[in-house]
What does this fold into?
Amino acid sequence: MTTNISDPTKSAELLSIVVPVFDEEKTLAAIVEKLLAVPHLHEIIIVDDCSTDATPEIIERLAAEHVVIRSVRLPQNQGKTAAVKAGFANTTGSIVIVQDADLEYDPAEIPDVIYPIVAGFADVAYGSRFMVRRAARVLYFYHYLGNKGLTFLSNALTNLNITDVETCYKAFRGDIIRNMNITSSGFGFEIEVTAKVAKLGCVLYEVPISYYGRTYEEGKKITYRDGIAAFYYAVRFNLFCSRKSSFKAVPEISNRLTPLLASKQDEKS
Ligand SMILES: Nc1nc2c(ncn2[C@@H]2O[C@H](COP(=O)(O)OP(=O)(O)O)[C@@H](O)[C@H]2O)c(=O)[nH]1
Ligand SMILES: [Mg+2]
It folds into this structure.
């Protein structure tokens, strides 16, 4: 990997966290508090997708209290994909990860998720809820079926053996995600980005994570319509989209990646 990666020796510039938010007044402050404790944090970019509850005031307060927090507000509600896209454009870190604003994923596990990239053997790393690390809430069977079907179709088209394509924990080398053209809407990002990192030939790892899922009564927003759209996006972005059009400038991928942090042994010497 050679293009546009920030100086690997500067761990202070390591990790950018993008938080897409829509009406999450109940959980936003709690999730941000956990994110502030993540090692090697460089910045948190909170993207408010035109929330209608107290979310904007909470973001304003958090940004005033912590210099690492920056916020973007979209003029109208456009969906998670538009929010993460706006967030990515504002990042500068060597690694970029997405963190949903609910409490379904535990930021304490972010260091594990990004480890394959930090250590230099991956370009992209996903946290998988089907390789359970500590605990996974038992929830909707039809969501499970939808995710399995979608993961199956995405894998069949990318020839990558992923277990959880819809996971929120997706981490990328910064130059890869900043260079990607993202054109889907709604929740299409998960499928689109997977198709495009596959086209690029990225080295992708999965890491087990926990899942503290929430119900619709507790605020879950994704619907079966998003699931149907995702099947469409799998076909569109895998079969009708070229590698060249997937990126502003196609990032260079090398088989010999460089660790982004000095190992403990290097630090001692
Ligand atoms: N920006 C944006 N984010 C949304 C929207 N709907 C949901 N989200 C966010 O996307 C994340 C995931 O939403 P959720 O309903 O929990 O879906 P799931 O975790 O993928 O099943 C949460 O952080 C939501 O706040 C939306 O319309 N716009
Ligand atoms: Mg969620």
